[in-house]
Amino acid sequence: MNITFRQLKLFLALAETGSVSTAARTMHVTQPTASMQLKEVTQSVGIPLFEVISKKVHLTDMGRELAQTARTIVQTWEAFEQGADSVKGLARGKLKVAVVSTAKYFIPRLIGSFCKKYPDIDVSLEILNRDGVVQRMRDNLDDLYIMSQPPNDLDLSDEIFMANPLVVIAAARSVLVKQEHVELKSLGNQRFILREQGSGTRMGVDLYFKKNKFKPDIRMELGSNEAIKEAVAGGLGIGIVSRHSLHGQQKEHGVAVVDILGFPILSNWHIVHPSSKRLSPIATEFKLHMRKELRRHL
After folding, report:
1. Cis peptide leading into 264, omega within 30 of 0?
2. 3-class DSSP assignment, residue 182
3. Using CB atoms within 10 A of its CB, is residue 231 exposed (0-12), middle (13-18) or buried (19+)?
């Protein structure tokens, strides 16, 4: 096979965007040039790599294998470039981070201070639900992943870097807010508004309830902390969220933390990546930066 490195990057852009025109813009070439280059890649492999259905590109099995191979090659090369730059005393390159949605309350500030320190580094931040972050990890799309419940079926390098307490919230006007040391069993007559199944917060909550033999009356399951806070503020029930979603406060936007015995549920934030992945100098520096910033603020 005779495929150039630039053609591999173009095919990887196609795999990640699902569009020839978008891949062309990513690689700063015209669409006809991109189409010709992709045709040459397919001819070189000798097996169909993708097909277009309703203007959307779908990779074949061999196409997905080539995309994974291309991704590994590109990431290895970028790590080499960063290593060479670091030897020369430079700090430029790319950092890709994927985080679960609740981490959006603190990660942007950490990334912001990192970018201020290293203005020539391009940072890509993906904010998804837990399933989305885990899938990106399986596909090896990013340098680092931040979540509260890492998957157990992957061989990961796992570092706990910050506590993630889960608290019960009620409408600020609720009588529960004025009470102290409320027992969990007394919440049997309350309607609960919880995160969706599969989220890290929900996994921690379900485990805690199971351990304490408590069965909540679930009124609804919502996909974001904002939606839960709005529903609770509207009097639809009580909720359980990460304290970070309240920006560290006891009260916020019509909701307040309730003093429930046994709460907050102890949980942690993890920064993980596949054990087999060799971190780039920039990713390693970002982990160090996070630890320093958290120590400074705490």
Report:
1. yes
2. strand
3. buried
**Any idea how long the chain is?**
298
What is the token pair recorded at 150? 């890492």
pLDDT for position 165: 94
Which residues of the chain are modeled with pLDDT < 50?
A: none
Rg (CA), the chain: 23
Tokens representing 191?
Answer: 């309607």
* pLDDT value of residue 87: 58
C-alpha dist (Å) from residue 97 to 123, 281, 298: 8, 14, 23
- Torsion angle in degrees (nearest 10) through CA of 264, 100, 287, 292: -40
Burial of 140 (0-12, 13-18, 19+ CB in 10 A): middle
The full set of domains in the chain, from first to last, is 5-65 (1.10.10.10), 91-162+269-297 (3.40.190.10), 166-266 (3.40.190.290)
